[in-house]
Structures are given as structure tokens and as C-alpha cells.
Amino acid sequence: MSNSDLEAFRAETRAWLEANCPPEMRQPVRDEEDVYWGGRNATFKSEAQKAWFEAARDKGYTVPAWPKEYGGAGLSPAQAKVLREEMAAIGARPPLSSFGIWMLGPALLHFGTEGQKQRFLNEIARGEIRWCQGYSEPGSGSDLVSLQTFGEDKGDHWVVNGQKIWTSYADKADWIFCLVRTDKEDKYRGITFMLYDMASEGVSTKPILLISGNSPFCETFFDDVSVPKSYGEDVPAYVGEINRGWDVAKYLLGHEREMISGADGGNTGTIGAALTRANGEVDPVLRAELAQFDVDALAYGAMGEKFLDEIKVGKAHPAQPNMMKYAGTELNKRRHELMMAAGGSHALEWESEETSGGKPSRNWLRTKANSIEGGTSEVMLNVISKRILDLPGA
Amino acid sequence: MPLYYDDDQTMLADTAGQFMAEEGSIKNQLRHWRDRQCKDGFGHALWQQFAEMGFTGMLVDEDDGGLGMGQVEANIVLEEIGRNLTPSPFLSSSVLAATALKHGSNDVKGRWLPDLISGEKVYGVAIDEGRKHRPETIACKAQKSGNGFKLSGKKDFVVYGASAEMIVVAARTSGSDSDVDGVTLFAVPQDAAGMSHDSVRLVDSSMASHVTFDGVELDGDAVIGEVDGGREVLDAMLVAGRVGAASEGVGVARGAMDMTVDYLKQRKQFGRVIGEFQALQHRAAHLYSEVEIARAVTIKAAQLLDGGSEKADLMASVAKAKVAKVAGLAVREGVQMHGGIGMTDEYDIGLYMKRDRALQEFLGDQYYHAGRVAEMSGY
Ligand SMILES: Cc1cc2nc3c(=O)[nH]c(=O)nc-3n(C[C@H](O)[C@H](O)[C@H](O)COP(=O)(O)OP(=O)(O)OC[C@H]3O[C@@H](n4cnc5c(N)ncnc54)[C@H](O)[C@@H]3O)c2cc1C
Ligand SMILES: Cc1cc2nc3c(=O)[nH]c(=O)nc-3n(C[C@H](O)[C@H](O)[C@H](O)COP(=O)(O)OP(=O)(O)OC[C@H]3O[C@@H](n4cnc5c(N)ncnc54)[C@H](O)[C@@H]3O)c2cc1C
């Protein structure tokens, strides 16, 4: 695409956003409720949120880079970047957030059958089905391949038994993408990547209260859950091949890490100016820390841009998402530490109108999971050491 | 513009990388000249080769006989210089002085650029007037005198000053020391009467001068740009220099890191290579992440500068601050992970530490630039 075409696209996009993105949707996301997650039981927080979601969905802008036949807008990487830039310029919120978009979608685009893509990708793009991720188990976190949840082969279906943990929003999700052991002999080649309905008989969830006082996480139990092997012609209930789910799982983790890293603009903002404006004069030493943070944030922003540019043309090292995840999440934790420090006693309020129910402190606590969820920082460093620096295994 | 090199730039990186690793290697250049106590601190024969490779005048416009390339390209060369610790006046002459001369009249360009491009002469820049980089304050004075000026005052940290056939001097022609306006840039020839050099060897074995101007008489045509309006040229020169120094710093960081990671794969203790120890792996992986980020923001800053973006100044300071922090980490971790031999002169890792220290001071350290970032952001 020529530069002038791209500029025309930019003008078009700007006009479309101007016409379709309500002013209320151009405010920073403050908490979970500001985000629309879709799903069977979804409700909108406001008319503006509904209007913005529907306009974006109809245009394919919930998943702009996916092909049109799967609910996307079929944008080229260059066009998608323009859209991102224009949305960032007006501070537009994402119209739809979902694990379907960030995690399952990319895995289906890569490994799915045509039938699976037609069905599931369209549902994801239209925000109809909300997904959750069933990876971790009580005994299998960083060492994920040690997972024990077992699916017994019964011919046309499996009977799944076991327990997952940390399943984010399992209680709100309609479907789960789940790692299930289907062969006990082979650690890596004995895992199947299954898709099934959370309303299936034998699935139950129990919330886990986090240090932030919120509870979006669950223990998820499978008690003789019957999972069919197929949902119709060319729509298998598993992604990739039976017993080869680990490849899919790893591919998906790459995307998850990319998402958590906030490479796509999430971690690039500076905070010094806003914090000193909002909280008044800060100590010189804190000001210095804020300045150092802003340097790191702006530098990380450039890294995020470079990473996305390189991914597009296949220049990025395949293990690079691990580095982005590591650096981005550590940065975000630091951001919230400094926000708490600048906020002083006000930021400590756990329940007050002024803090919208303790947002600063709850968000601060929530970010501590950034360097745990989707693989811990230590595990990221292990991967960088071995796959990028080629240091020997212990 | 995407944040990676296009085909031409990749080719330049390969060429410059190979040249620096062979001709400009630590053994052939830095150690060679250092061990001979060379008064210049760099090799003139190598500088001639820089010219033959087309590096010396790469930032000079094509109309003026140069290659008309941008900061991204100059940075590519600088990163390789950093990786190999190649001593050369590239940053001071081909980046800083060349950027200043861009703003000169045709007469000024005609007088100085041909020799810069051919590598015949090298130039320096005189900005700092004290231990730390504070270009906001210029006390060095140039008073009107006849058709020209009379220059008095002192400048510090003039890199390769004694070898420079001309020094670009920022001096005050009106107003008080901390005024933005009232600064003028002059091209002062080496043989100007009343100029004296106190040339000293620095920790990294490079040479720098304390320069004293004692009523140095300058013609009107020594002025680069406008009289009293030199701040703009000075700023342009500083931004280019800072982005360039950041890139050299990235090279230093990468050179130190590569050497260290290599060492981790070879050195055995407790019956295994030390690279197997997670305590070291994690630090190496952390360092890698930081170096990548520093490199990304340096490329970004160079691109913004080439694109004439108003954000270039901010990003230049971000790059300089980030790189200083990261290169410092790289050399400290490098020496530590080499264990005892890292402390020996025989091993190169310490040379990286020394170069990094000098580079950090040059054109403002991480604290200065983080402070600028805060100011430019409004706090
Ligand atoms: C907020 C949140 C949301 C999550 N959402 C989901 C979800 O939706 N679905 C899902 O399946 N899972 C989810 N997880 C689980 C997450 O993936 C795991 O918590 C994570 O992989 C770490 O596993 P673990 O908690 O068992 O810690 P462990 O593996 O027990 O680790 C404990 C500590 O040991 C360190 N460690 C472990 N192994 C090594 C090693 N080899 N080298 C060095 N250090 C090591 C870790 O870094 C950590 O510091 C979520 C977790 C959180 C906190
Ligand atoms: C200035 C100086 C003076 C000295 N004076 C004396 C003296 O008078 N007499 C004397 O006998 N010795 C002396 N030494 C030697 C000193 O004791 C050794 O340098 C030191 O013990 C480290 O050993 P090494 O240099 O072989 O490093 P190595 O053991 O090779 O270590 C290299 C790197 O690997 C790391 N490493 C090694 N093993 C592990 C591990 N298991 N886990 C994690 N990291 C590891 C180290 O911390 C180091 O960063 C001196 C050294 C110096 C620098």
C-alpha cells in the first residue's frame, strides 16, 4: 500500500472515529467495569459503551487485523498500526476486551480448522461468547506441563476430571479453552487443547479473593465432565491434534505475554507530570524517581513500537515476547508504586467516594500479579537466558 | 517509519561492523595507541580509512560534497565504534562539528567542510565550562572588536581538542551568562593566537583539553550562523551529539554484554560452566532486556531527529539517560561476572567500563537528562 493510500486511510479512520467513538469512551480505563467483555450475560455500563462496541463490531474493529470472513476488518499491518495510532491519539478505549481476542483467536487463526474459524472467530469478534483460560493447576504453575487434569477417552467423547486454579473470570465465562492430559505416558505429547462449555454438567467454580479485595479468579473443578470430540462437521472440540496441545498452548502463551506486556501502548505513558499536577509538590527525591521512571517508560514505549514493527515482518526473535512481558510488567509494577507514593495518604483510602472505592490501592495491589500471571518474571528470565542468550541448562 | 533498519541501513551496519571489528578492533587501535602513550589518542591512518569508507562526511549535505545521510546512519557507525571501543574523532568531528557547520554560510562551509569530508582534518567542539555539562550557561565571552571578535574565557572537556584543526566554540556575544539568547558559535582555527590547550589523558585513554582563550582575535567570517542567534545551532548540534553518544553507548553496552555472555559459556567453576548458574543467568537476561530497550529508544530518537520532529529533543534526552543507565549496568555486570580477571588490564572488559564512564559525562549524564525529561514534561 502506498503512502498516499495509507494517508487516505488515516483520514478516513479519523473521521470514522470522530463520528463513532463517543466522548465518554475517550477517557482512560479506570477499572474492570469500564471495559466491555462481551458474552452471553453481558451488560453494558452505559449507552456510550454500547454504541461504541456496536459501531466497532459492525466495522470489524473489535479485531481489526482479522480477515473479514471471521468478523475482522481485514486490515493490513500498516493499516492496523494507523488505526491503533488514531485511537491512541483520541484516547479511545478498546471497544471489546476478551481472552478470545488476545489468546484463543490467534491460536485458532494459526492452528484451527476452517470450521472452527468460521464459528469461533466470528463469535469472538462479535463478543458473543466469553472465554476463560484453563491452564494452571494447584500443582502446576510455572511447571505447566506437569498438569494432571485428565480426559479419559470414551470413543466419541472424553470424560474430564481434575482441578484448575487461577482461572480468571471462570464464573463469568461461557466457554473454556483448557489443557487436559490425554496420555499419561508422555509429559509433553500427552496434552490436548480442548474447548468446551462452562455450562456443561460437572463444571463448577469457586472464587478466590485476591489481596486487592477483588475476586475475578476462580478455582475450577471438573467432575466427570463429558466433552464431545466434535461440535459438527469440521468443528473438532480440540485445537491442533489430540495429544499435541502443548504446541498450541505455547503459541498462545506467546500472545498472552505480548498482551500482558502492554507493548501495544499500555505501558508507555509517563506519570511525572500528571502525578505532580494531581498531588501537588513532591519531594525532590521522589521527583527524581518519577523522572527516571518516565525515561524508562518512554524507552519501553519505543521498544514496544520496535517489537510490533519487527513482529510484522518476522524480524523479532521468537522468544522476544518473553522479554517484553518481563520488562513491561516490572515497569507497570513500578508505575503503581510511584503512584501510591505520590498519592500519599489519599491513595491509602480503601473505601471512599473520592477514590471510587479505593481504586489507587486496589489497582496497585492488582499489578503485583503482572509479573506472575502468564508466566512469572523468573520464568521469563529463564527463557531469555536459554533461548536468546543460549546459556546452558542447569 | 518502522523501527528497524531498511536494506541499505542493514548493509551499512554490516560494512561498518566488519570494518570496526577488523581495522578498529581493541587490539589494533585502543590498546595499540594507549600502550604507545599516543598524544592524539587515536590513529590518523584509521581516520583516513574512515574517510575512504565514506564515514567522515556522511552527515554533510550532498550539495556540500558529503553523502547527505541522516542521524540513523551516523548512529549505525557509532554503535559499531562503541562495540569495538574504536578511538576516533567521529562523534566530535563528523557529528557535532559537521552539524554545526551545516548552519554556516557558504564561505564557512567552503572553508571547513572539504577537509572534514576528506579526513584531512579533524574538528572539535567546545561547549562545557566546568565539570558537568551545563550548556544553558555560557560565560565564555566574544566581544565585538573591529570587524571581528575578541574571544576570552575557558572551556573544558574538549574531546581530542589538541588534535583538532578547528574548534567550534559557543561563546557569549551579549546578555548574561544564563540567557538563552546572545550566544554565538565560532569556528576557531587551531593556530589562532591566544588560544592554549592543556591536553589531558582521560580514564578511557582518550584525550581531552582544557582550552583557554586569551583575547583570541577572530574575523567576522569565523561566525557560524547568526551573531547572538547561536543557541539554535548549538541546540541542533547538541541533539545530534546526544543521540550519537547514546548510540555509541548502546554499542559499548552490547560489546560488554556479548563479551560477558561469552565468558559465562566458557568459564568453569564448581565443575560446570558458570553460565549454568541461575543467579548469573537472570542478571544476564535482565541486562539483555535493558540493552534492547535502550537500543530501541536510541533508534527512535535518531528517526525523530531525521524526520524533523519536535519530539526529537525529548527523545534525545530519554535516549541519553536510558543508555547511560543501561551501559553502566552492562559494564558493572561485565566486570563482576568476569570475576578476578575482569579486574586485570589484560582483559578487555575493564576497557568497556572506562569508556562508558567517559561517555556518560559527555554531553550530559543520566541525571542531567532525566531532569530535562521532567522539565520538558512540565514538572
Ligand atoms: C491474577 C492472576 C491471573 C491468572 N489468570 C490465569 C488464568 O486465567 N488461567 C490460568 O490458567 N492461569 C492463570 N494464572 C496462573 C498463572 O499462570 C500462575 O500463577 C503462574 O504461572 C505461576 O505459577 P504458580 O502460581 O504456581 O507459581 P509457582 O510456579 O509455584 O512459582 C512460585 C515462585 O517460584 C518461582 N519459580 C518457579 N519455577 C522457577 C524456576 N524454574 N526458576 C526460578 N524461579 C522459579 C516463580 O517465579 C515464583 O516466584 C493467573 C495468575 C494470577 C496471579
Ligand atoms: C584485586 C584482587 C586481589 C586478590 N587477592 C588475592 C590474594 O591475595 N590471594 C588469593 O588467593 N586470591 C586473591 N584474589 C582472588 C579472588 O579471591 C578471586 O578472584 C575470587 O575468589 C573469585 O574467583 P575467580 O576470580 O576465579 O572468579 P570465578 O570463580 O571464575 O567467578 C566468575 C563469576 O562467576 C560467579 N560464580 C562463580 N561460581 C558461582 C556460583 N556457584 N554461583 C553463582 N555465581 C558464581 C562469580 O561470582 C563471578 O561473578 C584477588 C582478586 C582480586 C580481584
Automatic annotation (TrEMBL), chain A:
One of its Pfam families is Acyl-CoA_dh_M
Domain Acyl-CoA dehydrogenase/oxidase N-terminal stretches? 5-128
Residue ranges of domain Acyl-CoA oxidase/dehydrogenase middle in the record? 132-225
> What positions does the domain Acyl-CoA dehydrogenase/oxidase C-terminal occupy?
243-389
Give the GO molecular function terms.
Answer: flavin adenine dinucleotide binding; oxidoreductase activity, acting on the CH-CH group of donors
Q: Which residues form a coiled coil?
A: none
Which cofactor does the UniProt annotation name? FAD
| Gene Ontology cellular-component annotations | plasma membrane
Spell out the InterPro entries in the cross-references: Acyl-CoA_Oxase/DH_mid-dom, Acyl-CoA_Oxase/DH_mid-dom_sf, AcylCo_DH-like_C, AcylCo_DH/oxidase_C, AcylCoA_DH/ox_N, AcylCoA_DH/ox_N_sf, AcylCoA_DH/oxidase_NM_dom_sf, Mycobact_Acyl-CoA_DH
> Which controlled-vocabulary keywords does the entry list?
FAD, Flavoprotein, Oxidoreductase
Q: Which Gene3D superfamilies match?
A: Acyl-CoA dehydrogenase/oxidase, N-terminal domain, Butyryl-CoA Dehydrogenase, subunit A, domain 2, Butyryl-CoA Dehydrogenase, subunit A, domain 3
Q: Which PANTHER family match?
A: ACYL-COA DEHYDROGENASE, ACYL-COA DEHYDROGENASE FADE29
Q: Which family does it belong to?
A: Belongs to the acyl-CoA dehydrogenase family.
**Protein name per Swiss-Prot or TrEMBL:** Acyl-CoA dehydrogenase
UniProt source species? Erythrobacter aureus
UniProtKB/TrEMBL annotation, chain B:
Span of domain Acyl-CoA oxidase/dehydrogenase middle: 142-214
Cell membrane found in the keyword field: no
Q: Which residues form the Acyl-CoA dehydrogenase/oxidase N-terminal domain?
A: 7-120
Q: Which cofactors, by name?
A: FAD
Q: Which residues constitute the signal peptide according to the record?
A: none
Q: Is Oxidoreductase included in the keywords of this UniProt record?
A: yes
For molecular function, the Gene Ontology terms on record are: acyl-CoA dehydrogenase activity; flavin adenine dinucleotide binding
User: Which SUPFAM superfamilies does UniProt cross-reference here?
Assistant: Acyl-CoA dehydrogenase C-terminal domain-like, Acyl-CoA dehydrogenase NM domain-like
> Which CDD domains is this protein grouped with?
ACAD
- Acyl-CoA dehydrogenase/oxidase C-terminal domain sequence ranges: 229-375
Question: Which Pfam families does the entry mention?
Answer: Acyl-CoA_dh_1 (PF00441), Acyl-CoA_dh_M (PF02770), Acyl-CoA_dh_N (PF02771)
Keywords annotated in UniProt? FAD, Flavoprotein, Oxidoreductase
Belongs to which family? Belongs to the acyl-CoA dehydrogenase family.
- PANTHER family reported for this sequence: ACYL-COA DEHYDROGENASE, ACYL-COA DEHYDROGENASE FADE28
What is the designated name of this protein? Acyl-CoA dehydrogenase
Gene source species: Erythrobacter aureus
